[in-house]
């Protein structure tokens, strides 16, 4: 008997809360006030141009990645291969 009463009480609560949330969902929303314009952002620091040394390192890294792809390396083996390749 206690189980039946508990189930009935639980069902009544679910029904009551379900009706409340449904009524809230179907109520028309008030029009939102227009947002104030955002403050202008500070200008970003311009990136320094890459030096020739940096460009050479980037090209070497890309070449080593292509070689690792050609060999089908993944994970730690790829990482080790790229490190050795870039040092040579």
Name its key features.
elongated, 3 helices, 88 residues, 66% helix, mainly alpha
Task: Give the secondary structure arrangement, pairings included.
Elements: H1 2-26, H2 52-71, H3 75-87
How would you explain this protein's 3D organization?
- The protein is mainly alpha-helical.
- It has one domain.
- The chain has three helices and no strands.
- The protein is elongated.
- The N and C termini lie far apart (82 Å).
Overall helicity: 55-70%
Largest sheet: none
Q: What proportion of the residues form beta strands (DSSP E)?
A: under 5%
What order do the SSEs take from the amino end to the carboxyl end, as H and E? HHH
Q: How does the helix and strand content classify structurally?
A: mainly alpha
The gross shape turns out to be elongated
In total, the number of domains comes to 1
Number of strands: 0
* Tally of helical runs: 3
- Distance separating the two termini: 82 Å
Computed CA radius of gyration, to the nearest angstrom: 32 Å
> Unreliable stretches, pLDDT < 50, 5 or more residues?
none
Mean pLDDT: 79
> What is the oligomeric state here?
single chain
In short:
With 88 residues, the protein is mainly alpha-helical. Helix content is 66%, strand content 0%.
């Amino acid at each position: 008997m206690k189980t039946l009463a508990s189930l009935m009480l639980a069902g009544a609560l679910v029904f009551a809360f379900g009706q409340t949330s449904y009524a809230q969902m179907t109520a028309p929303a008030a029009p939102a006030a227009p947002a104030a314009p955002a403050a202008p952002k500070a200008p970003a620091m311009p990136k320094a141009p890459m030096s020739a040394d940096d460009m050479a390192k980037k090209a070497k890294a890309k070449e080593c990645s292509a070689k690792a792809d050609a060999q089908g390396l993944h994970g730690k083996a790829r990482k080790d291969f790229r490190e050795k390749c870039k040092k040579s």
